[in-house]
Amino acid sequence: MRWHKRLLVAGVAGLMALTASACAGGQVRGAGGTPQPQTSGGGSPAGGQANDATFVYAPNHDVVTDWDPATSYSNEIIALSNIYEGLTRYDSETKEAAPRLATEWTSAKDGKEWTFKLRQGVKFHSGATFDATAAKKAIERTKEKKGGAAYIWDPVDEIEAVDASTLKFTLKYAAPLDLIAASGYAAWIYDVDAVDADGKKTAGTGPYTIDTWQKGKETELTLKAFDDYWGGWKPAQYKKVAFRVTPEITTAWQLLQKGEVNFVERLNPQLFEQAQTTESVRTAESPSFQNLLVLFNTAAGPTEDVKVRQALQLAIDYDGLAAALEGAGQKASGLVPQGLVGHASGMEPKQDLAKAQALLAEAGYGPDLKELKLSLTYGIGDEDQKLLVTLLSSTLSKLNVTLQAKPMNWSAQWDLGKKGGQDVFVMYWYPDYPDAYSWFLNVFKSADKPQFNLSYLKNAEIDAAIDKLPELTATDRLAAVEEYKTLQEKIIQEQAAVAVPYVQKYQRALSSDVQGYKDNAAYPNVVFFYDLTRAS
Q: What is the signed CA dihedral for 30, 34, 35, 38, rounded to 10 degrees?
């Protein structure tokens, strides 16, 4: 994504997505000739038994960019969320952290001391025993790596393994550690002695392990059940999972209808409407914490001029785009989606072509002036991003602005972005845990070597305000809300570093015989395969 990255993040994510939001790019981010696994959709599973069935997920982007659970911060959130587990997992229905590797927890001293009681009888995929010492080592290694979303542990001053089943955290400042421990990135607990960066083995406690990984192939990754999983296994559960990379959305839809894949993370409005009346398919809709960011290069090229950036913001047809998405996205108000602390109402953007033309003229561009050429990158196979680019290209052409738009897979787009290789970078973002801080720290805080700060914004005043957000959120919620709004005004209006056209609404399509599926906005595009069963 973050696709996030997160991440992230259709195309960690999250990050990202998230991952990102972490970020997931292209969403938040090959056609190979490899044989496809036996699938469950449309016919009898291999061997005729439900637990021999393979659940096939059809992403439109590469599946894994980083296998290390400490530093992972992109599309692999989907796979790794089924291989690794954290102390807690966010429950999107209760909007609270729920037990995972921790069964209960308490906080004291105004949120600066947290104690977690750990689940017993848990084994890592390596065969090692999960206990407080192992959890402490994993979190400390993640902190030391300083990669991906490791910043989530910044409030932690000391970790103590009180005994085999008790983990105690002392914080430097108050923070919601139960939510932090539920992050989609950097919160996974793993056997530090068994981490394999090459994707040949896994070191988690989750229900699945790696079966095969073939980077660049159509079926890039397959997972198999971890027989010693603490939750146990029932016959109707899916004990095999395959990720079949399908960049074109129409192809994914055809494969779903044929029963060759079980889950398509996103369809365009026309196909989604068709899916709702297709007998072998069912659909699912839910709001998300994932929004689309149009990041403008503030450091170099023609967009270094703030007037050009402001003109580009005003050229986007926000209402037209929201209408064309037909329910797949809703118009954004600021950087923070509704449902998170920091959301600011009354910041919905509006198109104003007359003002855009006037700003371009002040910068020396326009219909009767010099032509402006801008390079833009976006996620290949993402129909929503393509729609944005198509509408914007048409509008800008009337202002003598040529948008040289290039669809790219996430890895290539991100690599180019980290080198400052474009004027406009389109990606999704979603939070690493259910908190708005992720957008500001990862995407807009100054960075000498950009990771997700792909507007290349550098502003000391904004940086200082961002640093205060976590403690302010924990100690003075009203003040935090005001600070978030002020920051959004500075980043969007004053600096014009970004345009935020819409917040995604997840529209999924899956085989009608799949039971138990629930979307969770905190883990964008993640399917928790263990929770699913196949109808007999």
A: -50
